[in-house]
TrEMBL record:
Classification via InterPro entries: Catechol_dOase_N, Intradiol_dOase_C, Intradiol_dOase_core, Intradiol_RC_Dioxygenase
BP-aspect Gene Ontology terms: catechol-containing compound metabolic process
Organism in which the protein naturally occurs: Russula ochroleuca
Domain Catechol dioxygenase N-terminal: start-end pairs: 45-117
Single GO MF annotation: catechol 1,2-dioxygenase activity
Stretches with biased composition (Basic and acidic residues): 1-11
One Pfam family it belongs to: Dioxygenase_C
Highest taxon of source: Eukaryota
PANTHER family, per the entry: DIOXYGENASE, PUTATIVE (AFU_ORTHOLOGUE AFUA_2G02910)-RELATED (PTHR33711), INTRADIOL RING-CLEAVAGE DIOXYGENASES DOMAIN-CONTAINING PROTEIN-RELATED (PTHR33711:SF7)
Keywords: Dioxygenase, Iron, Metal-binding, Oxidoreductase
Name this polypeptide is given: Aromatic compound dioxygenase
Length: 321
């Protein structure tokens, strides 16, 4: 499947549908570990269950007891990646980051290093597909080319914890195509697609055109996909939009927004879906409104409205001491 062909129906990577498990959102480090252990119970082979439950338990215990930082963990991944690239004909992309996701380590580190503080927007992991070449665009412009996904308009404000607007805040955003693939996964990539950068206006408002995020699967020939299959787990990430928000004097926010009604929230490979980051998409069927917002075809689009609340650097430092 090419990166420009929109998938009509969701599919189950490795042939495993989302299991009927009532798992909690990862609101605490312990819940992340407990959810991964419950997911590991799905493994059909008893020995596989035993080995991986112990591996996950000890790995999470090590991370918690040693208070490893995200930067320290990423340094370790970069080292292992350099070894991997030296031993293979070419780079394996983000294989070790994906393995970190599958073991819940990425989510555990993110939660331990970025606890929720007051009414500020919760953070999430950066993910493996961020690039530095996102183009600048103006209010209402589109980060996605025509025909690569279902229309969506994203709007809202960037505010202080006291509810005051933050003008000139920089918003960087990126997402996968309607196929579930990112632009940098396309061997024929000639430039950035489904990613961009804009600033809030004097009232702290922002708005841009995008496409509705879809759940996406790890390729079936990927080693981590085969590992998840052996564990009886679906190899699918919940659909999401990545967002980074930063402004002078404020702590940088790295987060994701997850459209509601996704069947993979509790079993998503990365285990990073937080309840506060799940958003409602309102369907609009109004041709006049669609054209006013810049959509070229049809009458329908989805509207995502979300306000980002930033901590000042002093608020962040005070809560961490």
């Amino acid at each position: 499947m090419s990166t420009t062909e929109v998938r009509d129906e969701p599919y189950h990577a490795n042939g495993i549908p989302p299991p009927n498990l009532d798992l909690p959102y990862p609101d605490s480090p312990g819940e992340i570990t407990a959810s991964l252990l419950k997911l590991t119970e799905l493994a059909p082979n008893p020995r596989t269950r035993f080995v991986f439950k112990n591996l996950i338990s000890k790995l999470h215990e090590f991370i918690s007891e040693t208070n490893i930082t995200t930067e320290e963990w990423r340094s370790g991944i970069e080292f292992l990646t350099s070894l991997n690239e030296a031993l293979t004909p070419g780079p394996r992309g983000q294989e070790l980051n994906l393995l970190s996701d599958a073991f819940g380590v990425t989510a555990l580190l993110e939660r331990l290093n970025n606890p929720r503080i007051g009414n500020a927007t919760e953070s999430s992991a950066l993910g493996p597909f961020f690039t530095e070449d996102a183009p600048d665009f103006l209010f209402g412009e589109s980060i996605a080319s025509e025909g690569i996904g279902e229309y969506m308009f994203v709007e809202g404000r960037v505010l202080t914890t006291g509810g005051e607007p933050i003008p000139g805040a920089v918003i960087e955003t990126w997402e996968a195509f309607g196929t579930g693939l990112y632009d940098i996964q396309n061997a024929e990539r000639t430039g950035p697609e489904c990613r961009g950068r804009l600033r809030t206006d004097e009232e702290g408002k922002y708005g841009y055109r995008a496409i509705v995020p879809v759940p996406y699967a790890i390729p079936e020939d990927d080693p981590v996909c085969r590992l998840l299959q052996s564990l009886g787990r679906p190899a699918v990430q919940s659909g999401h939009v990545h967002v980074i928000v930063h402004a002078p004097g404020f702590h940088k926010l790295v987060t994701m927004l997850y459209p509601e009604d996704d069947p993979y929230f509790s079993t998503s490979v990365a285990q990073g879906v937080k309840k506060s980051l799940i958003v409602k998409l309102t369907e609009i069927d109004d041709e006049t409104d669609a054209r006013k917002r810049g959509f070229q075809k049809g009458t329908k689009f989805k509207l995502l409205n979300y306000d980002f609340v930033l901590l000042t650097e002093d608020e962040w430092a005070g809560a961490r001491t």
